[in-house]
Amino acid sequence: MLVAENITKRFSGVTALDTVCLEFLAGNVTAVIGENGAGKSTLMKILSGVYDDYEGQIRFKGEPVRFNSIRDAQACGIAIIHQELNLIPYLSITENIFLGREITTRWGTLDKKAMRQTSQKLLDKLKLDISPDTLVAELKVGQQQVVEIAKALLVESEVIIMDEPTSAISESEVAVLFDIITDLRRENKAIVYISHKLDELFTIADRYVVLRDGKSIESGSMQGIDHDTLIRKMVGRDITSIRRQANGRVHDTLLSVKNLCLKHPIRVQDNQLKNLSFTVGRGEIVGIFGLMGAGRTELLETLFGLHPKRSSGTVSLDGQYVQFRSPIHSITSGMALVPEDRKKDGLVLGMDVQTNISLTALENIEQTGFLSQKKETTLAKKYIADLRIKTPSEKQTARNLSGGNQQKIVLSKWLATNPKLLMLDEPTRGIDVNAKNEIYKLILQLADAGMGIIVVSSELPEILAISDRILVLCEGNLTAEMAVQDASEDSILKAAIPKTS
Amino acid sequence: MQLTLNSYRPFITKFQSLIALFILCLGISLMSDKFMTVANFWNVLRQISVNVCISTGMTLVVLTAGIDLSVGSVLALSGAITAGLLRNGIQLPSSNLYIGFTLLGATLAGLLTGSGLGWFNGWAITRFKLPPFVATLAMLTIARGLTMLWTEGFPITGLGDSFTFLGTGWFLGIPLPVWLSGIIVAIAVLVTNKTRLGRYIYAIGGSESAARLSGVNINKIKIAVYTIAGALAAVGGLLVTSRLDSAQPNAGTSYELDSIAAVVIGGTSLSGGRGSILGTVQGAIIIGVLNNGLVLLNVSPFWQQVVKGFVILLAVIIDKSNSKAD
Fold first, then answer.
1. How large is the C-alpha radius of gyration of chain A?
2. Do A359 and B203 touch (CB under 8 A)?
3. Which percentage of chain B shows pLDDT scores above 70?
């Protein structure tokens, strides 16, 4: 259906794609896999008409095509569903589906009835049991994804590209999505599926295409391929995954939290965190698991002083009471937070690597009131070397680095403050396998050096791999606490799922 | 051919304002023989120095992704306060009280007025989370109204030679206003490039949430920035008042627009985090030279505004296409 021949794309001298050849077949789900920075997103942007300055040839149903815009590609029948959804929150489902393609009456006014009927039909087909008049803002992320798919179906797309469609949705929503994909496959559409979650691919994909360093390495049928083989193809070598050897060592208490509560921002009588008490030892890694809305992120934010007016309870770090007043106080008392949204909260994307690293520790590079360029570069180079950040220089803009390297910059800037307690919120989200393992190793090293560490994660294997002790949150309550050797995926999940009364 | 153009591109991008300025000067001097004279050179620089002062403060504000619409009114009130205190002091007829002001006292009072209004802007923006556009728009009206009240709608004139020396005097062959704005620019360049304050200003503009989580005291920095902008507007007020030997109640009207234009032409992004003081200085010079040239060429004041508008558009379009190419 869609064939790419010798596609090459350069960004100001850097080759992002190098003579990539691949094909997507009708009635097939093709998984495009590769580490971050392998060129997946760039390729998808070319196929969907975002970039038009590339070398090589794209054939669609045998005909050579060249798209100059997303509209071009859409008109031909190629739709892309981006990782970040492109819906307008305060318009209804119908208005979003028809945005830019409104049906009008012969008077030139909107034919709301016809549009509503069509979107109702699309929603029925996709088994989304919600009125098409609902505002998108009121939908869950998974449902919004379905609306995006409805948009793609409206224009009779024959190729549908999905970029990390399951990165933000729950397992039941994933099941719904897979049902939809199966239906689309039956209708002879070509589905291009990009995901870091390899397990999903075995469920849904028929074929795979591997990209590595901008080159197309291999493609084939998913039949008879196993997890490890797939990883080997992506990375180009074996990866030994690490496991924390919990050897029953005793940690003396570093952080002690008592009766921590956080009021709900709107419903004041409700608590988002309910009387949490726990400790973290020196050199201990505590993993915190919980489903969406369990209060994981809120817990870290509260400890870091981001909700001073809504929180209560006592926290002491290294024997000193910590007041939840502002991040400034938490940082001076020895805390550090690697936030969930790296691009928005972790980094100033427009600034270079060096300025991002030094941002938390400017007083250390000050000399008689002025910032010392030399000290700053030395600081940055130290962390670039220590954490093996892959960047052409310390002056590279943070935006241009891959997710894994960006995360290493965030870690660097916190290590520069010599924290006693390091809190990480989804530290490996959207990061490829290789960088993931490097970050795990780093976390283990830091713990061995005596730092207390809290890792919040929604991925069970991750929690099990690096924690010494696991806390489970469910609707703001601490529902379980277990040493890693006593924990299993089952026992953790059981504690995380709300009891329906 | 395309290859040659591309290889020069970084050079062109880096010095585009200077190149534009050079072409502008060349064009005007071809059409008017009054442009390239020593007298006119200093005249242009003297005129520009007011906008340079204001725009330096404006740049800091815009780098934090804010805006200050009140600078023109703050300039007027600060100048009027200084002029009024210098001329009349404070008289309270009811208690027979009279306080006279020395030159230094009146000048400091003007600067304090500007800083105070700027501080108020910053306080309102951070305390009530107001959009800077709204808060400073309100201040634009408030400060203009206060100026009218203070001056009762009439110019305050006859301020004495020692005060007018600031706006008209020379030192080492260079006009005093040029010295003053030069020193302000030098300090601002140092602050933006070499100090924590400067770094925090860029960080806040680049990503306020990332800056907050990194332990930057956002409110403190923002209040500081608006206070500085107010103080520099007051400096502009002193220069204007002193040059004219008169504080006009409607002084500085629409100066905020020239100032924002200088900032934008100088390549500072209105969404914050990107830009520089020296860029703004180039922007201010371009506007100043353009104003001067259009007057020398006898272009009608109405057309002058049209031309200026198009120059601003052009500058932003070029800047946009450059940042896209990066």
1. 25
2. yes
3. 94
